[in-house]
Amino acid sequence: MDDLLAARLQMAVSLGWHIVFACIGMTMPVLMAFSEWKWLRTQKQEYIDIAKAWSKGVAIFFAVGAVSGTVLSFELGLLFPGFMKHAGPIIGMPFSWEGTAFFVEAIALGVFLYGWDRLNKWAHWLSGVVVGISGVMSGIFVVAANAWMNSPAGFTWENGEATNIDPVAAMFNDAWFSQALHMTLAAFVATSFAVAGVHAFLLLKDRGNTFHRTAVRIALSFGAVAAFLQPISGDISAKDVAERQPAKLAALEALYHTSKPADLVIGGIPNEQEERVDYAIHVPGFLSFLAHGDFESEVIGLDQFPKSERPPVLITHIAFQIMVGIGFLLAFAGLLFLVFSARWKHLLSSTWWLTFIACLTPLGFIAVEAGWTVTEVGRQPWVIYGVMKTKDAVSPMPGLQYSFYTITTVYVLLTLILVWLMRRQIATIETYYPSARKKD
Amino acid sequence: MLQIIIIILGVSFILYTLLGGADFGAGIVETFAGRKGERTISKAIAPVWEANHVWLILAIVILFSGFPQVYAAISVALHIPLMVVLLGIVLRGSSFTFRHYDVTHDSSHKYYTFFFKVSSFVTPVFLGITLGAMILGKISLENTGSFYEQYIMPWFNVFCLSMGLFSAALFGYIAAVFLISEATYPIEQKRYTRLAKVFLLLTLAMGMLVFATAEAEDHHLSNAFFASRLSIAAFGIVVLLTPVIFYLFRHPDALKLRAAVSVHVTLVMLGWFAIQFPILVYERNGNHLTFYNTQAPYATLYQLVIALFVGLLLVLPSFYFLFKVFKKGDEQQLHS
Fold first, then answer.
1. Is position B152 within any domain?
2. Which domain holds residue B217?
């Protein structure tokens, strides 16, 4: 394995792993604080039980997220020192704000997790709100750094050096808003549906369990709203990418030839040699509409870029299809939930609905991973779009594949332990929480 | 601007040593802490260790935004020890949390404890090795030598190893002192007092070893030490303070003892800063990476200072609140 590939794979594994915990860390505090608030208002046992049970899981995920985030802050340099040497002073600002937000989150979470009996009820709830806000903020800040890689701003690049550095302009780059919105919603969709799915699965085995029924309802309420908004945010992102990174748009749509109007290509397998997509569905003119809001407009294809500046089409296109496919499925599930809650409440406890929700458990996170693949692979061969190539940023140290093997082994093992540990935690719910024994 | 950032970097480094060091050290001390050790240690560090750990992240963020060349240089030359530090951080954090939150008690706890103890020791050792390698002067930033010369020799030597052992001993000392007042039973408190004494002596011995091995590696640390009045003063107070701390061990008073030890450790760090300042990395070819020749442009430093100030304004009171909440709770539990 060559060193560039090893470095890219190690970054992919580390980020792909961390992002799961980051999403959980952004979403769960909000869900916990909501459940605690319901308890403060209604004094119903199940709400406080759910908040407490969730907080035990969150403590574990947050710890793993904190340490895997530390790994990333070092790995940026360990793997791509050429990138950080130049990018550090430009995008240090969002990282320092992220650090601040994360600091507040870690402290407030300490208060929240260990302060159940030590604080006044509302003060405790407030600490949960602080965890939620700072968690979301830290995610939004760190996405600014990634957005800058897609939409570099706030510096002049001369003779391989960055000059005229303006960290504020770098942080408020053009891609930040659309990426941060898309990521935040994605975190809420993925985590909420995963939580709802697990509780739906448990509810199928123990129908009428108040604890699980309430947990499904809380998680789905958040997931449904976020999933319903996500396609709108996706549309904003698509138009943004079309304007700023036409090569990425062309790769994710597998548009080899500049077209006017351009078809939307759904599914299919890109054939990189022949430059066509096999077995795909074509929707005439629809890509022109999605990219520029006009069915007749021209969309730039990969033929406008030299071969050395094209992203890998196969991976990007397939990852994009997975993300969008799951996105629409979850938006549909969210819509059904909202309609059923308003008109046909009895359907929410039907076997088919709970089975459906249980089946959706991993999908949100698969979409998150696919989405990151789209944005990262779709930016290749650049690490800073149009400025620095990934191969020029990689560490000169030979043998990077051994770092990659080590990190991958450790993360795979920790994942297995985490799954096993969660199953053990779930098995004890009935013992610790009265509402999990209550039937109706 | 530069001065402010250097001060904040130094402060986060010292706070990480005191707070993060106590958490790592707890894992080292646990081996000798007897049956009740696990419970006391888990209870003491669970609410705070993640927040304490963020001081390291803060230092890294300051390093890569403020002094990017230093960050890039050590990332390349010290890739291997830094990877070990990272694995140690991941395994320590995960195994501690798994052990603390896994409600079912069975043989798995043995494995959590094993990984917690091993990684609590290995991580500070490799942190110390990394710091040692930065100042030893065997790092080459020109990619000309063999793999051994470029990536192993700079840190694989007796000086760096003694720096590693010194760090582990220091962390153990801080932890043992911290745990004296966290322990509930007098017999436990006695045990931690004894451990604190042993680790303090060990730290002093390792400190001397660092100076001795520096000479063996042809790095004239003692000369640099005697050339700096500040470091002579700092280490002088460290030496004078040592018997005072031994006196305080006789009738442990949590507040006084913790304050004295914090001063002790801070002075060690300050003395060391005084020796090194303003150099961050010594290169093999005689060049140095310093605060001055690697500093980021003014605009970056300015924004960094704003972010750090706002950050500290939010973080320090929250930290105070966090520690206060748990202190108060402990006292209430003792009285009830």
1. yes
2. 2-307
Residue of B nearest to A118 (CA): B329
Establish if A326 belongs to a structural domain: yes
Instruction: Give the pLDDT confidence of A236-265 residue by residue, as tens digits.
Output: 999 999 989 999 999 988 899 898 888 898
CATH code of residue B94: 1.20.1630
Residue, of B37 and B81, whose pLDDT is higher: B81
Q: Read off the pLDDT of each residue in B266-284 and give the average, rounded to a whole number.
A: 90
Total of domains in chain B: 1
Q: Which amino acid is at A59?
A: A
CA distance B158 to A284: 70
Is A248 inside a domain boundary? yes
Residue A170's closest chain B neighbor by CA? B300
pLDDT at A133 over 90: yes
Mean pLDDT of the region B147-158: 92
Query: Is the residue at A81 inside a domain?
Result: no
Chain A residue at shortest CA distance from B90: A67
| Inter-chain CB proximity A102 and B57 less than 8 Å | yes
Work out the mean pLDDT of chain B and round it to a whole number. Answer: 89
Tell me whether residue A275 is in a domain. yes
Percent of chain B whose pLDDT exceeds 90: 51
**Which of B51, B297, B311 shows the shortest C-beta gap to A165?**
B297
Residue contact A403–B79, C-beta within 8 A: yes
At residue A230, the pLDDT reads 94
Would you say residue B124 lies in a domain? yes
How many residues in chain A? 440
Minimum-distance CB partner of A397 among B60, B90, B151: B151
pLDDT single digits (tens) A301-341? 998 999 889 999 999 999 999 999 999 999 999 999 999 99
The residue of chain A with its CA nearest to that of B106 is: A424
Contact A161, A187 (CB under 8 A): no
Number of domains within chain A: 1
B325 vs A: CB within 8 A: yes
Is residue B86 within 8 angstroms of chain A, CB to CB? yes
* Cβ contact A114–B47 (<8 Å): yes
Q: Shortest CB distance from A67 goes to which of B46, B90, B314? A: B90
Predicted pLDDT of residue A83: 92
Q: Which two tokens stand for residue A23?
A: 């999403």
Q: Report yes or no on B321 lying in a domain.
A: no
CA-nearest residue of chain A to B299? A166
For residue A207, give its domain range: 174-391
> Please, which residues 99-158 of chain B have a Cβ atom closer than 8 Å to chain A?
101-104, 143, 147, 150-151
- B24-57, pLDDT tens digit by residue? 999 999 989 877 888 888 888 888 888 888 889 8
Residue A376 has a pLDDT of: 94
Q: Is B318 a member of any domain?
A: no
How far is the C-alpha of A30 from the C-alpha of A34, rounded, in Å?
6
* Interface size between A and B, measured as CB pairs under 8 A: 213
The reply to whether residue B65 touches residue A69, judged by beta carbons under 8 angstroms, is no
Confidence of residue B331 (pLDDT cuts 50, 70, 90): low
